Amino acid sequence: MRSVFCWALFVAVCVTACSKALLDKDEFTALLIDMHSADGMLVELDQRRDDPKVDYKYYNDLFEKYGIIRADFDSCLSYYTRRTKEFDAIYAAVIDTLSHRQTVAMRELNRLTADDTVNIFPGYTVVVADTIRKDSLGEGRPRRDSVLYDTIVRQADTVVFDRLNSVILVRMDSIHPGMYRFKTSLKWDKKLATTRNRIASYFLSADDDTLKVRDVWVSADTFKRDYNWSHYVADPKFSRLEVRFIESLPDKKAKKDASSRREGRIWGTVLNKTYVTPKEADRYEKQYAPHDTKENRR
Questions:
Q1: What is the pLDDT of residue 46?
Q2: Which of 70, 199, 266, 273 is most buried (most C-beta within 10 Å)?
Q3: Per DSSP, what are the bridge partners of residue 279?
Q4: For the chain, which residues make up each domain, given as ranges?
């Protein structure tokens, strides 16, 4: 809008004023509104040019709509800009109309996209020692292979880490192209022995090609921390998501089997698929383009 306004002032200085405008005040106001709307669409489509002569090619249809040609528009513009109060009133009406249209459009966009930004968090998959086989009962401790690890906790508000449950998973099998945002809260009951802990996330294809999300490193202290990541998926072959709380990397300074002594909890986990415009989608595809989709997951 600012660029067109500056250009309008430039034309006004360069063009000789006519004694009477071909368009009355209301018609000229309507034309300016249409021109600014067209200018906004050109910017959105990346077809805008800095040369007014090129822009005129896009405005010719508007001139025809109002029964004028370029020279007539220049003449009207010069006429009204020489009458400052009238021109100020015209542009006040233009700005007010465009602002109202934008407000209405944003309300409609929010209504249409309300269901496009939703929490699709499927729930935690918690692997715990749940059942002891009958043939292992008796004196002494049960053998290690007698424990079944198959308990799944879904839609739990809070899940705890303990000796039997040192890794918590989030798995989702219905991933579609789009922008995904993940966040969670975590707090340790006691400080971890190692600082090399992360939330590791991967988008996977049916043949196990991997689209790795940036690692989110987890603090070892006992304060409540919030963690998050966002990632855009462009390729429809990546149909699954796996998030691991907490993946520990080798740490020479850590005590042996430090991960088995984790005590803490996670809660408030959210996975949102958010609405993005086509222009944003083009930008995200370049920004999140993977260098190698066959990364090693482990």
A1: 57
A2: 199
A3: none
A4: 2-112, 118-287
